TrEMBL record:
Membership in a protein family: Belongs to the TRAFAC class TrmE-Era-EngA-EngB-Septin-like GTPase superfamily. Septin GTPase family.
Domain Septin-type G: 72-345
Pfam families, alphabetized: Septin
Keyword GTP-binding listed: yes
Stated name of the protein: Septin
Source organism (scientific name): Parnassius mnemosyne (clouded apollo)
Length: 411
C-alpha cells in the first residue's frame, strides 16, 4: 500500500516567547507526533515583521558571497613606474603602512652608469578586520635613468603581456581551481615635479601601456611646488594626455541612488587628478598628536593634510573606493582585448595549417575526393593570395613614385 506525504505550509504571526513554547512542546511530543503524523511534514514560516509576508530567503546571497570572498582572500597587483629618487618606495610604504624595501641594496656607481630598466616584484600578506589581501608591488628600477631612454617601455610592456599570457594559459588549462591572478591591475606613473609637462619618455611609456593597464598619474614630491605651480602642472598634464589621446584610468559614474556624501567624495577625487602627493615614512609629533610627515626648517608637511598633499585622496581611491573597479576594468576591458587577440591568432594559425594540410594531401594523393566546401576554401585562399600580390605591387609602385618625386625635387 502506497502512502503519500502531505505538506502543509502554515503562515502565522508569533513572537520569540511563543516560538520557545512551540519548540519545547515539539521536543516533548516528538516521539508521539512521529507515530501519529509521520507522513505529514509541516513547514512553518515565521513572520517576525508584518511587512515580510512574501519572504523567500535569497536576500542572504550577498552575505554568502561575502563570507566566501573573505575566506578566499583578495589579490591586487600594483606597478610603480618612474625615475629613481621620486619617492616611489616611500609612497608605497606610506600607503600600506609597511616596509617592503627594508632589504634593498643601493647600486654603486658602475651599476648606475650601465643602468637598464628591470623588474622587481615584492609580495606581502596584509590582514585588516579579518579581510586578507595579497599585495604584489612591481617596481621598475632603472626606468628613465639611462642617457638613451627610448627603449625603457619595452620591459614594462613585456611584463604586462607576460602576465596576461600566463593567466590565459592557466584559464585554458584543465585545472582552474587554484588559478593565481598576477595581472597588473593598476600602474602608478610618477611625474617629476621639476618637469613643466609630460616629457617624451612619459608620453611614449603611457602610449605603450594605456590599452593594457589602468594608469594613474602621480606628481611626485609636490611639497617642492607652490599651490599655483601644482595647479598649472596638473592642467598641462591633462592637456598633454588629451592631445596625444592617452587614456588613463577613468572613474566610474556614481549611481543615482548613492548618498550625497559619496557623490561629493567622488567629485573631489575626480577634481584631484592627477594626484600631487607627498610621501613620508617618519612619524612626527605635532600639537600633541602623531602625524606622518616631513620636517623642514620652516615647518612640517603633513602628508595626510589635504592642503599639503593629495595623498589621502590617492589612498582613498586606490584602496577604499576603487580597488575592485580597477580589477574589474582589468578583467573586462584590458584582459578581454588581449584574450580576443590571442583567440584570433590561434584561429588564423589553425586555418593556415588546415589549408597547408589540404594542399599537401592533394599533392600526395591524386585520388582524394574534393568536396564543394574544400573547393570553396581553396578558391578563397587563392583570392587572398592574389589580393596580397596586388597590394605588394601597389606598395612597390608607390615607393617607386616617391623615389622619382624625390629625384625630381633634388634636380
Amino acid at each position: 500500500m502506497e502512502t503519500s506525504e502531505t505538506y502543509a505550509i502554515i503562515d502565522i504571526n508569533i513572537n520569540d516567547k511563543d516560538l520557545n513554547i512551540i519548540n519545547t512542546d515539539h521536543e516533548n511530543n516528538k516521539d508521539e507526533n512521529q507515530k501519529k503524523i509521520s507522513p505529514l511534514t509541516t513547514v512553518i514560516k515565521i513572520q517576525r515583521d508584518r511587512g515580510e509576508r512574501d519572504y523567500i530567503g535569497f536576500a542572504t546571497l550577498p552575505e554568502q558571497v561575502h563570507r566566501k570572498s573573505v575566506k578566499r582572500g583578495f589579490d591586487f597587483t600594483l606597478m610603480v613606474v618612474g625615475e629613481s629618487g621620486l619617492g616611489k618606495s616611500t609612497l608605497i610604504n606610506s600607503l600600506f603602512l609597511g616596509d617592503l624595501y627594508k632589504n634593498r641594496k643601493l647600486p654603486d656607481v658602475q651599476d648606475r652608469i650601465e643602468k637598464t630598466t628591470t623588474i622587481e616584484k615584492k609580495t606581502m600578506e596584509i590582514e585588516e578586520r579579518g579581510v586578507k589581501l595579497r599585495l604584489t608591488i612591481v617596481d621598475t628600477p632603472g626606468f628613465g635613468d639611462a642617457i638613451n631612454c627610448e627603449d625603457s617601455w619595452r620591459v614594462c610592456s613585456a611584463y604586462v603581456d607576460e602576465q596576461f599570457r600566463q593567466y590565459f594559459t592557466d584559464e585554458s588549462g584543465l585545472n582552474r581551481r587554484h588559478m593565481q591572478d598576477n595581472r597588473v591591475h593598476c600602474c602608478l606613473y610618477f611625474v617629476p615635479p621639476w618637469a613643466h609637462s609630460l616629457r617624451q619618455v612619459d608620453l611614449e611609456m603611457m602610449r605603450r601601456l594605456h590599452r593594457k593597464v589602468n594608469i594613474v598619474v602621480v606628481i611626485a614630491k609636490a611639497d617642492s611646488l607652490t599651490v599655483l605651480e601644482v595647479r598649472r602642472l596638473k592642467a598641462r598634464i591633462l592637456n598633454d594626455l588629451e592631445e596625444h589621446q592617452i587614456q588613463v584610468y577613468q572613474f566610474p559614474e556614481c549611481d543615482s541612488d548613492e548618498d550625497e556624501e559619496f557623490k561629493q567624495q567622488d567629485r573631489e577625487l575626480k577634481a584631484a587628478v592627477p594626484f600631487a602627493v607627498v610621501a613620508a615614512d617618519t612619524v612626527l609629533e605635532v600639537g600633541g598628536r602623531r602625524v606622518r610627515g616631513r620636517q623642514y626648517p620652516w615647518g612640517i608637511v603633513d602628508v595626510e593634510n589635504p592642503r599639503h598633499s593629495d595623498f589621502t585622496k590617492l589612498r582613498t581611491m586606490l584602496i577604499s573606493t576603487h580597488m575592485q573597479d580597477l580589477k574589474d576594468v582589468t578583467q573586462d576591458v584590458h584582459y578581454e582585448n588581449f584574450r580576443a587577440q590571442c583567440i584570433s591568432q590561434i584561429s588564423q594559425h589553425a586555418m593556415r595549417e588546415r589549408g597547408k594540410l589540404k594542399r599537401d594531401s592533394m599533392g600526395n594523393n591524386n585520388d582524394v575526393v574534393i568536396t564543394d566546401t574544400d573547393r570553396l576554401l581553396l578558391q578563397k585562399d587563392e583570392e587572398i593570395r592574389r589580393m596580397q600580390d596586388m597590394l605588394t605591387q601597389m606598395q612597390e609602385k608607390l615607393k617607386a613614385s616617391d623615389k622619382k618625386h624625390d629625384s625630381i625635387i633634388d634636380v
